[in-house]
Amino acid sequence: MSQVIPEKPLRVVVWSTGTIGRHAIVGVDAHPDLELVGVWTSTPEKHGQDAGLLAGLDRELGIRATTDRDELVALRPDCVVHGAMTDDRVFESIADLTELVRDGVNVVSSGPVILLHRTGTLPDEMIEAIDEAGRQGNASLHVNGIDPGFANDVLPLVLTSLSQRIDHVVVSEIADYSTYYQPVVMRDLFGFGQPLDGADTKPLLWEPGILTTAWGPVVRLIAEGLGVRLDEPLVEEVDRRPAERDTKTVSLDVAEGTMGAVRFRVIGTVDGVPRVTLEHVTRTAPDQVPEWPTPAEGDGCYRIEITGEPCMKLEFTHHGEHGDHNVSGMIVTAQRLINAIPAVVAAKPGLVTALDLPLVTGRGLVAGTGTEGER
Fold it and tell me: What's in the keyword line of the UniProt record (predicted)?
């Protein structure tokens, strides 16, 4: 399939004004193929405030944020960029997204990541309910981002196009999360700063099966892209380590002896042999657990390693123009969704994955060419 180019700017609503939502507002405003027509906020104090000011721009955009869902649906936007927090309300958010597509609104969303792939995680009837809502509204839903998302689905699959034989694909995030501002994720989901040995304080993420629920869709999507059927269940490995000294992060303080770093893997095997592995190496200070993998440069990276013929290794890094890799992590998450909007609007109704979309690029965003930021 060729790249999708809309005939006229697509009308877009940004759904949230938080960490991802602020960047999404900026991204939609800068995109010549898109027109920002509405913004949703969950915060009553932000209701009625201009979207440009909420996004940190130095100008107003003439779009007022609202807490009224139906007001935004009534605008009949072509697409919603959904950046609201879903990690702590997975099934409620699935219901929200399903209702949007039933109402005829295409959606690109950063979560819940359980929807990155269609099979193996959620019951088939839940996926069929999304598809049916899409058929009723003639609208599509696409969930993606950077991780889970582009860095460990599209990027590794593109790299495998150079392979003659593939023995094992390993995709990794290796990062220092000390500047990552997501207190709920850091404290409640990962358990940073919490006791390592308290059963009553063990985060849900480390319970058996939860990693497979969250990152298994990535492993299964790569396997589908490679045409292999994985053994079930997927294999999980977790290694949590205590902080060796008191450490401060932007989300929370990590006391010495509490959880300071974690390395986990979700492994897809074929006949017992590892073929696709998802790995995270997450620290709250760059010098923690030095024997674990570290980025070749900077504070974080995504690493793809393919063994076979030939053996290949790709390290993908990013950092903000005026910030660190955690700032740019939010930007690339938002932009992967924003740049996919034309393809998702043109896609078949229902849930669509990275395997269903044509080439997605940063078309129109090259600075100084007379297109970037135009209306």
Answer: Oxidoreductase
pLDDT tier for residue 339 given thresholds of 50, 70 and 90? very high
Q: Are 97 and 108 in contact (CB under 8 A)?
A: no
Strand pairing report for 312-316 and 350-352: unpaired
Long-range contacts: 364-373, Cβ < 8 Å, 24+?
364/31, 364/32, 364/33, 365/30, 365/31, 365/339, 371/32, 372/30, 372/32, 373/29, 373/30, 373/32
Domains by residue range for the chain, with CATH: 10-146+328-356 (3.40.50.720), 164-309 (no CATH)
Could you give the CA distance from residue 108 to residue 121 in angstroms, rounded to a whole number?
A: 20
Tokens of 191: 């358990």
Mean of the per-residue pLDDT values of the chain: 94
Share of the chain above pLDDT 70, in %: 96
What is the DSSP track for 175-234?
A: EE-TT---HIIIIIII-TTS-SS-GGG--GGGSTTHHHHHHHHHHHHHHHHHT----SSP
Residue with tokens 């007001």: 71
pLDDT higher than 80, residue 79: yes
Read off the pLDDT band of 220 (50, 70, 90): very high
Question: How many whole angstroms separate alpha carbon 201 and alpha carbon 198?
Answer: 5
- Cβ(222)–Cβ(276) below 8 Å: yes
What pLDDT does residue 324 have? 64
Q: What is the pLDDT of residue 202?
A: 79
239 — phi, psi (to 5°)? -135, 105
User: What is the rounded (10 degree) CA torsion for 25, 30, 35, 36?
Assistant: 20
Helix (H) or strand (E) holding 251: none
What whole-number distance in Å separates Cα of residue 369 and Cα of residue 30?
A: 13
Question: Would you say residue 118 has pLDDT above 50?
Answer: yes
- Decide if 254 contacts 246 (C-beta within 8 A): yes
